[in-house]
Amino acid sequence: MAETVHAAHQEIRTLLVLGASGDLAGRLLLPGLGRLLATGRAPELRLVGSGVDDWDQAQWRERLTEAFAVQPSIEMAPWERFPSLAHEPGEATLRRLERESVYVCADVTQPAELRRVLDRCAGPVGIYFALPPAVTERACLALEEIGLPEGTRLIIEKPFGNDGESARRLNAVVGRLVPEEQVHRVDHFLGKSTVLNILGFRFANRIFEPIWRATHVESVEVVYDEDLALEGRARYYDRSGALRDMIQSHLLHVLALVAMDPPPTLGDRDVRDRIAEVLRATRAGDPEQHSRRARYGAGRIGAREVPSYAEEAGVDPARETETLAEVTVFIDNWRWKGVPFTLRSAKGITPTRKEVVVTFKPVPHLPVGLEGTSQPARVRIGLGPECLDLELDVNGSGDPWSLDRVSLSTSFGGAELPAYGEVLAGVLEADPLLSVRGDVAEECWRIVEPVLTAWSEGRVPLGEYPAGSLAETQTADVS
Ligand SMILES: O=C1O[C@H](COP(=O)(O)O)[C@@H](O)[C@H](O)[C@H]1O
After folding, report:
1. What's the CATH number where 290 sits?
2. Within this chain, do residues 241 and 357 fall inside the same structural domain, yes or no?
3. 195 CA → ligand 1 middle, Å
4. What is an example of a GO molecular function annotated in this UniProt entry (predicted)?
């Protein structure tokens, strides 16, 4: 599909990873690349890494060997853990990359140093910014000063900016460097098979479309509760929090796929137009009534004792960073007017819950004589692992006149590639379908900004839940 729609796009020959010695590159990006190359789906490629750590080539090779051996990281869910890559079709490519790839220690916000890094790259280059947004912006300004090799594609990790204003600024500088179709703003949820499954479920089954609207739908939840706690990521997370980390990017995209109108094709233009359209119609409800924030206190996640978030290494307790964010949004269009969409993500919760739940309205009239309480029909679309569940009332076993609840459930196998591998496949194939478009990145910030403001002004109290449970939150003492 991608080839027919995007045959005109130029493939990249060198992938340059900025921030190559950082956590994200080691944990997700390079293993995703390794997996992609191992399947033999990617074009011939050179790999150049650059970071501020003063690594020699041996250290870099060690990082690649580790990443390509794909020891699953703590953040990889079980369905993303792979067997060894040995004997895969691209095995020889991986070994070649390990041998030939180079690492350049540089501060890429400095034009002369960035020039030195680019000199090691051949052909059209894909520059992957695995960097915090402010550093990405400065590196883009440095690129503007030194100029870009022809055909360059920019691949920018999330979060795209820290707020609407910085996202607009970053979009402006990126737009001066390359045309929009050469920009890949990464949201790895768009590469998740569970998320892409929403498209097949909605648009390949005629039975759902007529009822997929306010007339029949009572409410929609998009939930991503993880059992992971901070896992040593304070430097990034403590300045971000759950709202910026998960809702602003990932969960709003899931909402968009659930709520958008059917696209005529799965070409990037059609799908991204539909996503943009529905997000433009989306607004957060009044934050005081429709949002919740909390952070975990000390507790136990499975066998692990977890300290309170405020006591985690590197955390500034006065910052009031939330590890649970919940926001209800509304979509002001004909299809969805008045239906609450509640988005929630929390860290440090067991059991995990990662799903979209569509709850339908009750029947207008239950025939007199049917006994029991009728419950609304529900569709659950699993976001991890892959599963689907339709909850219905039926005349079940036993008394033929009483209602029983049944669940028609199925689970299906995982994807060939992890989410980062799928997103990178799009990048290497020059297909922006799974990348966030610039206007959409800004739209996502517009939606969450009233909530960010209300929270920063203390209009919504910060609750607390014990790690490992979603027990009623209480207000945290942040003094
Ligand atoms: O981007 C992020 O996503 C992960 C959750 O995604 P998963 O694919 O690893 O389940 C989240 O834990 C992390 O905080 C966030 O930065």
Report:
1. 3.30.360.10
2. yes
3. 14
4. glucose-6-phosphate dehydrogenase activity
In which residue are the tokens 């990281």 written?
73
Task: For residue 347, report the distance from its CA to the centre of ligand 1, in Å.
Answer: 10
Closest-CA residue, ligand 1 atom 14, reads 245
* Residue 457 forms part of a structural domain: yes
- What is the 188 CA–ligand 1 centroid distance (Å)? 9
Q: Report the residue among 23, 246, 436 best suited for mutation to probe ligand 1: largest number of ligand atoms under 8 A from its CB.
A: 246
Confirm if 324 and 294 have CB atoms less than 8 A apart. Answer: yes
Nearest residue by C-alpha to atom 3 in ligand 1 = 246
Residue pair 374/363 in contact by the 8 Å Cβ criterion: yes
- Tokens linked to 92: 């020889």
Beta strand pairing call for 378-382 and 291-297: unpaired
Q: List residues near ligand 1 (CB under 6 A).
A: 75, 77, 226, 228, 245, 419
* Shortest-distance atom of ligand 1 to CA 347: 12
pLDDT surpasses 60 at 1: no
Instruction: Please report the ipTM that was assigned to this predicted complex.
Output: 0.99
More confident: 30 or 473: 30
By annotation, the residues acting in catalysis are 250
Residues 6+ apart with CB under 8 A from 444: 248, 249, 252, 253, 279, 436
Residue 416's pLDDT is 85
Number of folded domains that form the chain: 2
